[in-house]
Structure formats: structure tokens, C-alpha cells
Structure of Maltokinase:
Amino acid sequence: MTAPVLDALLPDLTAWLPAQRWFAAKDRTIAAVRFVGHQEVTPADAIPAVEHAVIAVSFTDGGSEETFQLLLGTRPRIPGDLEHAVIGQVGDRTVYDGLADGEISRLLLSMIVSDTAVGSLRFVPEPGIEAPVVGPGRPLLGEQSNSSVIYGERAIMKLFRRATPGLNPDLELHRALGRERSQEVAPLLGAIEGVLPGDDGALPMTVAMLQSYAANSADGWSMALTSVRDLLAEGDLRPDEVGGDFAGEASRLGKTVASVHIELARGLGTDRLGPDGVAAVADWMRDRLDRAAEAVEVVAAQRTEIARVLDGVREVEGLFVQRVHGDLHLGQTLRTPRGWLAIDFEGEPSRPLHDRIRPDSPLRDVAAMLRSFDYAAFHQLAEWETGAEAPAYLQRRAQEWADRNRSAFCDGYAEIAGSDPRDQLAVLRAYELDKAVYEVLYETRNRPNWLAIPLRSMARLVGDTAGSEGS
Ligand SMILES: Nc1ncnc2c1ncn2[C@@H]1O[C@H](COP(=O)(O)OP(=O)(O)O)[C@@H](O)[C@H]1O
Ligand SMILES: O=P(O)(O)O[C@H]1O[C@H](CO)[C@@H](O[C@H]2O[C@H](CO)[C@@H](O)[C@H](O)[C@H]2O)[C@H](O)[C@H]1O
């Protein structure tokens, strides 16, 4: 489509964006949307026609713009099963979200498999892989920061929705782990690369990533919730006495995360931060605390105490750093029939790319998983906590579940890593509290009903400076 034709879509696009799960600015009011780049994948009169586009969205609060990627499909007549994906009408064509269309996802896969280039877009298979069978994709439904389609339970392609210059860390780290022949991630199959037009010219950008699909798998978050549900339903039994005990899985998960860290260190190197580097990590945590304190009163009220715990990170001489996952939680793990896999190495979605690729302590990932065990333990009780307090005996059971699984995870991690994360308790606690502060802000913006979960942990981490970790 030409620029004037695309511009005709803008009013419909502006109305459509806030309803998309991946639109990561739902708390802001859109002032204007503009196209900053577009590339036809097929001729404009093909049926369906496909176009890749980058949009910049500005907001009435005057803050920074956000850029997003779209894969637009157009057809003269829209089949009934695509009506839900319609964005608007331009001339005699209906424009819709292209990933919803099996014919478009089939085309994208075939272009990757056959190593194609169209204008600024490159469709590249990963060298040496066995090409997946080309067929239509089925959009993944559910909670996602990006948009994925699944090809016959053999491959999954993720379109990154935020348009950021540079190699996406999800692709970069999967590539590095592939070179290490990692058994802890799903093998990478290919990618779509494009360019992001900017003031300084066009910069390379990752459009999409194609990976093996882990069939017959369950994600760690659902498995953990099932275990907690069974425990709370019993009430008078302890976590080690109920059928759905999760500790064995938590320990295996610890081993998997340690293996990923070893592979990332081997493939991409390690470093020791000197005093200035450690001070920079501590300052970074303080900045994040300041931002959370501005937005959330409870954080502001405990600012001094939180800052004291965060300063625990300063207690190490020569902090060991390497590339890490950066946003690990139970929902980023898949239990396959063979074992655990880690997915989604993009880092925290709201952080700028240069922050997400900065080497960090592996304790950041360990701490984030410990936080996730807390989340799973108290998720069911959180609804109570927004109204009345959950009964004390259930809170005790939930805490026992969290302690047992946090401890099992650390045991498993230590067995493979050769060092126990709990040996650096002050640093681990600082990373855990930093994550809890982030989560308070995340829940305030995204899921206020869940806010009680990180708030509770924040209070524990601030109050319990002498307690033992994971026990
Ligand atoms: N390789 C895979 N095999 C099977 N399912 C996967 C795979 N990768 C991702 N998924 C599923 O897709 C969901 C979203 O993937 P994720 O990479 O976390 O996307 P996002 O970055 O959009 O959050 C996951 O929760 C998982 O259910
Ligand atoms: O999965 P994303 O990369 O989009 O990560 C963001 O969303 C997560 C929630 O979906 C959020 O994780 C928090 O909630 C989880 C339960 O839903 C819990 O297991 C995690 O421990 C907790 O941090 C994540 O922080 C955020 O970046």
C-alpha cells in the first residue's frame, strides 16, 4: 500500500490498538498514530496481500512515543473466520491483523524455509536445521506480550510487537544457546529481519523468530497453581504430604536454570564487576525504586528500608556477571515429557534494549524464580486479601509451599552450578526485593487485583533481613 493509502487507515487503527493484548500502553491515551515505515511482502493486489509496517504512537501525556510492528493483511472480501481480526477498510480492501490468516502465516513460513528477501525484509532459516513442513499457522490465544502462531505442533513463530532497533535478545540468546547445543531451550529454526527507519537512517531490527514447538508440554505456572490448589483444598495436610507436591519439579527446574547459565557463560562470556560496576547496579536498582515510589504510595512509605536492603548488592567484591534471561518466572518455563525448557529471553518488556542486554548477576534469574514461587503460593489467596484476609491456616500452608519449593529450586540450582545462591544471601535478597518493587509497579499498571502478592513479599523482604533464604 502507498503511504496515502495507509494513512487512510489511521482512524481505524487508533481505535483498534488499545484493545490488543500486546499493546503495552493501555494506561495512556493515544494522541496520534503515524506510519514510520512499511514494506510490501506481496504485491498490493495479491489475495491476500501482506504488508509489514512500523507505527509510532504518541500520547496525550506528552511522554515518549512507542513504536510497534504490524503485519497487515488485505483482501477485497473478508471470510467470516477473519472478521474478528479486521482493523478497517481502505478503498475496496479490508485491512486486518495478518497473523490471524492461515494463508498469510503459511506464506511467511515458506519464505523463511526458502531463504527469501523482499525489499528491506529478510526471511532466514537457521543454518543446518531440518525445515518444518510448510502449512498454515494457528494463532496462539491467551496472555502474551507479543503475537505467536503455531504450525501443526512442530514450530511456533513469534512476531515481536515492540519495534526496537538491534538484534532482539530472545533471538540472540536462542542462537547462542543453539551453538552450545542446549537441551534447555527449544531449537531456533529461523527469523525474519527488517529495518527500523529513524532519524539516523535505517537500523536493523528483528521482526519475528521461528522455533521448534514443544508439543505435549505444560507451563510451570499452571503446574505450580495446580499443586497449590490441591494443597489448599486439603487444608490440614502439609506440602510434602499431598499428592501434587511440586518440590521434585522445582528442584529439576533449578538444575535447568543452572544449565542455561553455564551455557550462556560458555557461549557469551563472563566478567567481574569492579566497585564502579557494582555501584552502577546498585544505582540502577535505586532508580527503579524511585520510579516505583513516585507511582505507588506504599513503596514511597518504605523507601528508606527498601533502599537499605537493595544496598546488599554492594556487599560483594567483584560481582560475577554474564548474560542472563532477565525476566524468568514460572510462566517462562515449559515442562515437556523430557524435562524443563526456558522460553522468552527478551528480558523485562518495559526496559530499554541496552538495559536488557547488559550482563548481570545470574542471581537476578534465581531471585526472579524465587519470586515466582511466592506468586504461585499466594495467587489463590490474593482475592481474599483484596477484601477480607484469608484464614491464617491457609496463609501458613501457602507459605510452607513457597518455602519448600524455593528451597528445592535452590538445591537443584546448587547441584549443577557448583555454588549455592543462598551463600550470597544479601545479594540474593537485594535482587529479590528489586524484582518485587518492579512487580508492585507492574501489577499497579496491569493487574491491580494481584497487587497484594508483591506487596506482601516486599514487606517480608524488608522486615526479614536476618531470616534464612528459601527455607
Ligand atoms: N517453543 C515453544 N513450544 C511450545 N509452546 C511455546 C513455545 N514458546 C512459547 N510457547 C507458548 O507461547 C506462550 C508465549 O510465548 P512467549 O515467548 O512467552 O511470548 P511473549 O514474549 O509474547 O510473552 C508461552 O507461554 C507458551 O505457552
Ligand atoms: O511474561 P512477560 O515477559 O510479559 O513478563 C511480564 O509479565 C509477567 C506476568 O505475566 C510478570 O510476572 C509476574 O507474574 C507472574 C504470574 O503471572 C509471576 O510468576 C512472576 O513471578 C511475576 O513477576 C513479569 O514480571 C512481567 O515482566
